[in-house]
Amino acid sequence: MDGRLGSPIQVGWVVEDLDRAMRDVTGLFGVREWRVVDWPDPALPDIVSFHRGQPAVEWRARMAFGHLGSMEIELVENRAGVSTYGEWLATHGPGIHHLMYAVEDVGAVIESFAGQGVAVLTSCGVSLADGFHPRWAVLDTGGLIGVNTEVVAREGLRG
Asked: Which of 27, 74, 84, 128 falls 20 to 30 Å from 67 in CA-CA distance?
């Protein structure tokens, strides 16, 4: 892993009120269709979440996904529990939280970034007999570049 991620495929915002944010983004930028999901997503019963290395069993969020051309827009309203989204909102207020990149191997990117002193804020994936297999992760690059970095397995968690 040479550290290069390519072009971002998503911009993620943390918002206080998801319904209001969807209306605002639609009005300002023309996003017309939103897919809204609750997290944890009942359609993904085998997915487990971690925050700063600890199980994130209390974390609840509502998320909306739309598109501006080829760029996916994600809006996240933290509803309960400790999460990177709630922490960002408390520290920075509403706004851009992350840029997301599709990668072949989330674990390899995590390792590469860890070698540069970047911690994992949140990771979600599946636990199998041979260990945890991350499907996506938010990496703590906010203090370095002003925005966090999210990586997702190229085959996608969101389909």
From this structure: 84
3-state DSSP helix/strand/coil % of the chain, to nearest 5: 20, 45, 35
Backbone angles phi, psi at 24, to 5 degrees: -65, -45
pLDDT of 94 > 70? The answer is: yes
The predicted-structure confidence for 51-91, as pLDDT tens digits, reads as follows 999 998 899 999 999 999 999 999 999 999 999 999 999 99
Please tell me the distance from the alpha carbon of residue 148 to that of residue 150, in angstroms, as a whole number: 7
Instruction: List Cα–Cα distances, 115 to 106, 110, 111, in angstroms.
Output: 14, 9, 6
116 Cβ contact list (under 8 Å, min separation 6):
3
Of the candidates 52, 28, 49, 24, the residue with the CA atom closest to the CA atom of residue 39: 49
If you average pLDDT over every residue of the chain, what do you get? 92
CB 70 within 8 A of CB 121: no
Position of tokens 């540069």? 116
Domains assigned to the chain:
12-153 (3.10.180.10)
CB atoms closer than 10 angstroms to residue 124: 24
Grade residue 2 by pLDDT with cuts at 50, 70 and 90. Answer: low
